[in-house]
Design a protein that fits this description.
Order of helices and strands: HHHHHHHHHHEHEHEEEEEH
CATH topology of the largest domain: Methyltransferase, Cobalt-precorrin-4 Transmethylase, Domain 2
Structural class: alpha+beta
CATH superfamily of the largest domain: Schlafen, AAA domain
Shape: elongated
Number of strands: 7
Strand order of the largest sheet: 1-2-4-3
CATH architecture of the largest domain: 2-Layer Sandwich
Number of helices: 13
Helix content: 55-70%
Length: 383
């Protein structure tokens, strides 16, 4: 039933995207014709820009071989239409100051979201080591910089072609201040998201795009360096911040999928989250022998990643996904999973059926707490 609903939503989104895109292209083509016929250079230039943007999602999907979400595309098209066509060509800004301010705030919000997502994606890829405040500052600076570049574009068009987009110094400063306010708003929400772990404010589409093409754009670790790093972890052996698991879901004795094996993995992650963080290596036994994850019999690595993500969501909670980062590493022909768990800022309970349990790290093992011991630990660790 859920799959049917998702399919219907995707179909509806695609239909809406086609309708909105074609309507916009038709209007922009008419505007382009008027601009060319009556020598209205401003209309002509912004109509060409608008037409290009309508094809941008298609270009991106071809470049990265990943479909741009319909909702994101429709939002982009409507925003550009309102900003470029109505705002600048039809002169609504002159009549309604609030329209100018709101559209500038919208632009700052979108660019702030992009900046936040890029910095967060770099953080997830371990190419950026920074606290949430620094990441939020980056998002703010990114959005403000784009806004300033836009004002420079308007000034350039005014100076070279006499378009009078900037009516006065007050008009320019109004746009800059609106951009700063919008950037501050989105970066503040981003800071709150990173601190609390609530998945509400980062574009999953952009993050997945960066993750999928991390090697191409140079934000991931060198493969050989990563292999050496994992080998050094294995050589150290298990301790309070490193643990090995032979498999993710398969019982090594019965060769069958075993929910208890999955539960052991989940409770180790929760133990790290509730303690000081740590690394879990799946595909290595207690004697440091590299067994590989092939014995879990997943169709593909993508299927394995989806399964592990689903386990985390179902048994730990989606709000803790930002604290958990895993990657599949090739160690001389055998693949293992390296799972890094950060220290959580709030208590994590593992859901197992109708029960919920609390785990912490106790030396090289994971222990369950209950009763007074649990209350005291939470009061000392999270309050």
């Amino acid at each position: 039933m859920a799959k049917n609903r998702d399919s219907e939503a995707d179909s509806s989104g695609r239909k809406s995207r086609v309708v909105v895109t074609n309507i916009m292209r038709a209007i922009l083509l008419i505007a382009l014709f008027i601009g060319y016929t009556y020598s209205r250079n401003l209309i002509l230039i912004f109509s060409i820009i608008g037409l290009f943007v309508t094809f941008l999602p298609y270009i991106l999907s071809r470049m990265f071989k990943r479909e741009v979400p319909a909702s994101f595309e429709i939002m982009l098209l409507l925003f550009v239409y309102g900003l470029l066509y109505y705002g600048k060509i039809k002169g609504f800004y002159d009549q309604f100051l609030i329209v100018d301010v709101l559209l500038t705030l919208s632009a700052a919000f979108i660019f702030g979201l992009i900046g936040l997502t890029l910095s967060y994606a770099l953080y997830r890829e371990e190419s950026l080591k920074a606290n949430p405040f620094v990441i939020a500052i980056f998002a703010f600076c990114f959005a403000v910089s784009i806004g300033v570049l836009w004002e420079c574009l308007e000034f350039g068009l005014d100076y070279t072609l006499g378009f009078h987009l900037q009516k006065s110094a007050f008009d320019t400063m109004k746009d800059v201040l609106a951009n700063v306010a919008g950037s501050a708003f989105v970066s503040s929400l981003g800071y709150f998201y990173l601190k609390t772990g609530k998945i509400i404010f980062v574009s999953s589409a952009v993050e997945k795009l960066v993750h999928k093409h991390a090697y191409k754009i140079g934000v991931n670790k060198d493969k050989e360096q990563l292999k050496e790093h994992v080998k050094r972890i294995i050589d150290k052996g298990e301790n309070n911040k490193i643990e090995f698991k032979s498999t993710l879901r398969t019982n090594v004795h019965t060769k069958q999928v075993d929910k208890n094996v999955e539960h052991a993995t989940i409770k180790t992650m929760a133990g790290y989250l509730n303690s000081d963080g740590g690394t879990l290596i799946i595909g290595v036994d207690d004697s440091r022998n590299i067994l590989g994850i092939e014995q879990d019999n997943f169709v593909s690595h993508d299927n394995l990643a989806l399964h592990l993500t689903s386990l985390i969501k179902d048994h730990i909670g989606a709000e803790f996904l930002p604290f958990i980062n895993f990657e599949i590493v090739d160690l001389d022909g055998k693949y293992i999973i390296k799972v890094d768990c950060d220290k959580s800022n709030k208590e994590v309970f593992v859901k197992n059926g109708k029960d919920e349990h609390f785990y912490v790290r106790n030396g090289p093992s994971t222990a369950m707490l209950g009763g007074r011991e649990l209350v005291e630990y939470i009061n000392n660790r999270f309050k």
